[in-house]
Every structure is written in C-alpha cells, then in structure tokens.
Sequence to fold (352 residues):
Amino acid sequence: MGHLQDVLAGAALSLALLATPAVARAEVAEPSGCPIDSRLATTAPASDLRITFLGVSTLVFDDGVSQLLVDGYVTRPGFIDTAFRRIGPVRAKLDKQLHGAGVERLRAVLVAHAHHDHAMDAPMIADLHKEAVIVGGASTVNLGVAAGLPGKQLCTVHDRQTLYFGPYEVEVFKAPHGDTGRLLGWLLTGDTPSSQTLPARFSKLKDKENFSYLIRHGGREILVHPSAGYTPGAYAGVNAQVVFLGVGRLGKLSQEDIAKYWRQVGGAVGASTVVPVHWDNFMRPIDQPLKPLPWPLDRFELGQQRLDRAIAEGDRPVSVLRLDAHDTLLVASGGAVSLDRMGADPNKNAPR
Ligand SMILES: [Zn+2]
Ligand SMILES: [Zn+2]
Fold:
C-alpha cells in the first residue's frame, strides 16, 4: 500500500469506527496458572538472551532453552478486514511466523491488554504450545477462557506481582493505556467477556487495564512497556538496562509530554538501551517491510524526533536501536547489547 493509501486507510478507519456500537460486560475468570512460588525459579543458561521483534509489541525472548512471548499478534489482518469484518488468528500465518522465530519451547505469553493488536493470536498460540501460560488482565484471560484453554494455562495478574517461568522472573506493572484519541478510547475501553470467541469485530476486544513487564534473566533486566502511558513514580527504584518503549501515537504529543514520558519510563529505570515498539502500521502483513502508523493515527517522524531530543536531554548516554520485523536484539550475560539483523525477511526496511 502506498503512502496515500495508508493515509486514506487511516482516515477511513477513523470513520468506520464511528459506525461500530460499543457493548461490553465484565466477567471475571478464575484462572489458576500463575506461577508465583519463587522456588519455581531455575538457573539461567549462560547463553545470550535473544529478543526477536515481530511487529507492534510482539517480542520473542529466547535463551536457547526456554522462551517467553510478549504479546501475541502476528496474523495482522489488513485494513478492510480490521475495519469492516470479523478478525481472528490464522493458523498458517501464525505457524510461519512462530516457526521462523524458532518458537517451540514457549513458557508464557505476557499480554499488555486485550486489544487485538496485542492479544488476538495469544489464545491460539497457547493452544498450540500447551506449556505456555497466557498472562494478563481479566479481559485478556477471558479470551483464553473463550478459546477453551484450561485454567493452568491462564494467569490473571495484578500490579507488582512476580511470576517465575523457569529462569525468567517476570514482574508485572500496571500502567495506563497510551492515548488513543477519544473515538478509539470510547470504542475500545471496557471489558472483554469470557464468552468472546474469535473471529470477532476488532472493537469487541476491549480492555480497561494495561500491563508492562520487567523480565529478569541471569542478571539481565529488560522492561517491556508496550503502551505509551505511565503512572508518575511507578518505576521508582526499579532498574532495567534495556527498555522496549511503546511509541504508538507519540507524534500526537508535545515535546514536553514526550520528555515526561521518557523520564518516567526509560529515564526512571536508568536504561542504557531503548528500542521503540508499537510504531508500525499493524494493518500491514509482517512479511512485507514495516511502515509507520499513518496519519491521522500518528505523526511518526515528528514523534521520533521529539523522543530522540528528550533522550538526548537526559543525564546519561542512551543508545536508541530501531528494529525492523524479525530483527533480534542480543543481550549477553554481562549485559552487553548487540543487534542481529540477519532475520529471515530479505525485505528489510528499518524505520528512520
Ligand atoms: Zn490498545
Ligand atoms: Zn496497541
């Protein structure tokens, strides 16, 4: 799709959303799959921790022995399907992406919230990987309930909870969803009931909670903060060398607001490496070059320039690494960070 089409698609999506009624009803699942006992923790292997970017904020963490997924969204239906049809996971696309990223020993899918661009493929992924637990708020877990997953594969989390998946220690931070604009906010804020099967209209996947995840592994501390909202002071006393920072719709914010966001997240944890996530147009397939979310949904270039400026004004040097789909960040056991751009996709087009 060309730029003009991206723009038109963005405008048309905004219009299409106007026509979609909002219906939500809360139901609370009672899952039992949260591994909260610290005696479950195992020693991390000495190998590099590999973190592969699969678009939006879907990330594969792999230490060579076991894996975590943050978010589950690789099917990526196009604009027409997203705006006007029912959408859901597509097994063939899902298999291709997860196989390409080497996902075969998955322990958990840590989901930010139940919106389709984070959660849509998570139930099918957990169904295909029976050792994996879906971790998230009540709405996310309800999608797993609706998909027929057993309680041992479902974990409803709360703020500052710690979970143990083998050598991965995961601390949960509740955080506000980033600004979506009033229309999307009205449409997508609410509860997803445990009767909500897929495929479904994207607006059926509602949530009123959002979570970030601090993943500790063999001395490494990596924060994934998928949505561009924050609670002031939430990360006081928390450390992370690497932050995957949600930058969706940052271009809609002022320089001052972006600087506050940076200080409260990446600055607060003392990150020395930041990787922007949730910048791409999630209505384009992942095996084509990623493109930024188009106007009027975002002003990508402006947001990135302002983020760079905010980071440069901080009190420590920070490297900003921009990943394309299938790129892998390597974090060595001593904390050294490097990039492997040798992913399977030959059509590389990293955002600038
Ligand atoms: Zn969302
Ligand atoms: Zn999102």
Remarks:
- Residues 38-340 form a domain with the Metallo-beta-lactamase; Chain A fold (CATH 3.60.15.10).
